[in-house]
Design goal:
Length: 399
């Protein structure tokens, strides 16, 4: 009963978080022009991608070290990865002309890196208490900051929207530093015989996970980069509507995946309950999306985004397929087989780029078809991996 309560609480928090995230998307759609909305999305995507390259997997390695009661001097690793994030951000600015807001870009990279490490590290708690807090805190802050800015100033230029994003990142980063302190205090209270982090274990774990996360981020970001390069900022602006709806399913499935992964960390198998929820959610989404897409887009995003409505169902289908692929990959992660997952990601990226290039004249329809082809590729490989490399030391969680 207690374990069910934790799951139900996490589901409730995630649903509320998804709703608030949608509200922030509505606000941005009204606050910015379609072109500026595309540029804003490119800024956020590039920040996230740089953070993944520099720090992805570091929080994961810290969590696994904690599982082995290795914790001393973790701050050294934390500060080192923040320094790496600054270096990668500066290199990105020097090599690519993607934003005029260079200082704000570097600052957002630092603050987002703190958030990412905290999220990964917080999964050591089987109750996911801090993880749930962060899941809800992010959209609450976004709605408060963007909503306040829109109510006070109405439509705004891109620069002001980036400044509001930076304010959000600063508040979130400060909160994460407090949460890291709480994680440390709780861990030291519960554990005895804590030792220093094994450098070989840490960096080997980080390197494998970092490679996997980079290619995972490439899979989730390359669409934005290619849309800007091949069909322009305007279509990326339209595509943000697809992202907003796709995120409703993706965020929920990612939450369930984190719940499943947290169970694996604690030797529990939660796959049946997770798959049941995903199946129910997917059936509902497929039934209602074609019926409600056009009136909802017109009502909440405005008529300037209405051309996206007929395409939306294809992005919903893709998010379900991609989510299942990610869920079935967790067994490989827990066993440290990131190299095989890296190969899977590489193949799917090649499929996506090839299909998008061939169908780029179809604009967003081409993007949707390319996505579905790549996600199906990953799902087939993930199913093979799931049965070939099962986690054998887990048990069904007691109700």
């Amino acid at each position: 009963m207690k374990n069910n309560r934790h799951l139900l609480t996490l589901i409730a928090v995630t649903i509320l978080s998804m709703g608030l995230t949608m509200v922030s998307s509505f606000i941005l759609a009204h606050m910015l022009s379609v072109d500026d909305r595309g540029a804003h999305q490119l800024f956020i995507t590039t920040v996230s991608y740089v953070v993944t390259i520099a720090t992805g997997g570091s929080g994961f390695a810290l969590a696994l070290s904690m599982r082995n009661k290795q914790y001393w001097h973790w701050r050294r690793y934390f500060v080192s990865f923040l320094a790496a994030a600054i270096i990668v951000a500066l290199i990105a600015i020097a090599l690519f002309d993607f934003t005029d807001f260079k200082f704000l870009f570097v600052l957002n990279v630092i603050l987002t890196a703190i958030l990412t490490i905290t999220l990964e590290k917080s999964k050591i708690d089987p109750r996911l208490k801090i993880y749930r807090t962060l899941t809800l805190q992010q959209p609450v802050l976004l709605v408060a900051i963007y909503g306040g800015g829109y109510l006070l100033f109405g439509e705004q230029p891109l620069e002001q929207a980036i400044q509001l994003l930076t304010l959000f990142s600063f508040i979130q980063g400060a909160a994460c530093l407090f949460y890291l302190y709480k994680i440390e205090k709780e861990f030291k209270r519960k554990q005895q015989n804590i030792t220093e982090i094994d450098r070989t274990f840490f960096f080997k774990t980080w390197f494998k996970q970092n490679l996997y996360q980079i290619f995972g981020a490439t899979t989730s970001s390359i669409d934005k980069f290619l849309i800007v390069a091949w069909i322009g900022h305007y279509y990326l602006g339209l595509y943000t509507v697809c992202i907003a709806f796709d995120a409703l399913l993706t965020k929920f499935i990612n939450m369930l995946t984190d719940y499943y992964y947290s169970g694996l960390l604690n030797n529990y198998n939660r796959i049946k309950s997770v798959l049941t929820i995903i199946a129910m959610m997917g059936i509902g989404a497929v039934i209602f999306t074609p019926l409600l897409a056009e009136p909802i887009i017109k009502l909440f995003f405005s008529a300037k985004y209405i051309e996206v409505a007929p395409i939306l169902i294809w992005f919903i289908l893709n998010s379900i397929i991609a989510g299942l692929s990610w869920l079935l990959s967790q067994n490989m992660l827990i066993q440290g087989k990131q190299v095989l997952l890296f190969t899977r990601q590489l193949v799917s990226i090649a499929v996506f780029i090839s299909l998008f290039y061939l169908l780029k004249d179809q604009h967003l329809y081409g993007v949707a078809c390319a996505f579905i082809g790549a996600s199906l590729t990953r799902l087939v490989i993930s199913i093979i991996y799931y049965f070939k490399y099962p986690v054998t030391n887990s048990k069904v969680e007691q109700k």
